[in-house]
Amino acid sequence: MSQEQPFGGTRHAGNDPQVLKRALHRHVIDAIEDSGRNLLEGARPALAQFVLEQVGDYVGRLRLALSRYEMERLGEEIVDELTGYGPLEVLLRDPSVTEILVNGPYRVFIERGGLLQQTDLRFIDAHHVERVMQRILAPLGRRLDESSPMVDARMPDGSRVNAIIPPVALDGPCLSIRKFRQDMLKSADLLATRAIDQAIFDFLELAVSQRCNVLVSGGTGTGKTTLLNILSQMIAPQERLVTIEDVAELQLNHPHVVRLETRPPNAEGNGEIKASELIRNALRMRPDRIILGEIRGAEVVDVLTAMNTGHDGSMSTVHANSAQDALLRLETLVGLTGRQVAEKTLRQMVCAALDVVIQLTRLADGRRCVSEILEVIGVRDDVYVTNVLFRLDRRGGEGFLREAPNPAGEKLRHEGLR
């Protein structure tokens, strides 16, 4: 059993909640070991009762001024640390929290309502953060150590996890969790939150029904995956969809979906399966539409080729600051593959593949919305010819302006809808 005054003595432990919690944590671990009981593998109520008794014993012997409520709360936190995800437990259970960001042991941020805010939650130390990381990753079969200090994974509930530790993370281990929504958003939710208006909704329905190839563009956390989910709800149920993602996040409410996920290399550097390989394989699976979670590397050539070879109605996302920049971003990604393609040929390839680019943004108040919809018409004098269909009117109350009298792309025009 540990001594009565660990970590600097009784006075400091009583004055500093974190020191007290650290001392109690050590005390409880020692008590479990001394008891010879396998409490950590048993039922939570039995462990909780044991921890509460130990907390009461410790507080009583040191005569600390803690109320019953404070002791129970400390006991619950220690049980969470022993069996679950420590300070993250309460955040993972809170449906209003959409993202959790841990910057070292003493700074925990959350996103709620589209806005970031710092919480008063803290870990005991850097080792505590790493223990929680390992607890999250262990069931996923993912490795996190000095030889592999970065991990991108998906939790059993679908939440996306990114973990990074020293020496790559200079200020301590960092963890990012983008929580998985159990209640999938619907088109009506976008209208209610003013992410789109009725005219944009009608246009999107038309574009999807006429099998336009759609690229959703925006920064991190602007709602690209959410919009992709909603667009998929507009696809006819008799069509066959194949989705390809690095980490499966799409929740396609569709009766005929084949979901594919890339695989990182193992500890020996073998076994990697890239998005470009999955796209090529998907072409052999008789898809009506291919939905690529995000274009970020060499798969750009394969997805553009697929859009150009009979797989109309395909969709993907890309990180870019504007709809026009999204087209240039695709060019840049092709260049990074090392393939030598003439600029004119490349732009013709992009234009032949894409019909509509939807740009998303996140406003200062946290609201996510469509900021621009661009139709891609063609190339003239080696320059993209585009038409802005809708844009966000930031000066007129942040409503939407319809830029064209009859917004419809080349494909819609060919279908006789213009």
Describe the structure in your own words.
- This is CpaF family protein.
- Residues 83-365 form the Bacterial type II secretion system protein E domain.
- The protein is an alpha/beta fold and 418 residues long.
- The protein is built from 14 helices and 15 strands.
- Strands 9-8-10-11-7-12-13-14-15 form a nine-stranded mixed sheet, sandwiched between helices. The chain has a six-stranded antiparallel sheet with strand order 3-2-1-6-5-4.
- Helix 11 (299-308) links the parallel strand 10 and strand 11.
- Helix 10 (275-282) packs parallel to helix 11 and helix 11 (299-308) packs across helix 13 (343-353).
- The radius of gyration is 26 Å and the shape is elongated.
- The termini are far apart.
- Mean pLDDT is 84; it is low at 1-14 and 405-418.
Q: What overall form do the CA principal axes indicate?
A: elongated
Q: Tell me about the biggest sheet?
A: 9 strands, mixed
Distance between the termini: 81 Å
Strand content: 15-25%
Low-confidence stretches: 1-14, 405-418
Query: What structural category arises from helix and sheet content?
Result: alpha/beta
Protein name: CpaF family protein
Family: Belongs to the GSP E family.
InterPro entries: P-loop_NTPase, T2SS/T4SS_dom, T4SS_GSP_E_ATPase
Domain Bacterial type II secretion system protein E: 83-365
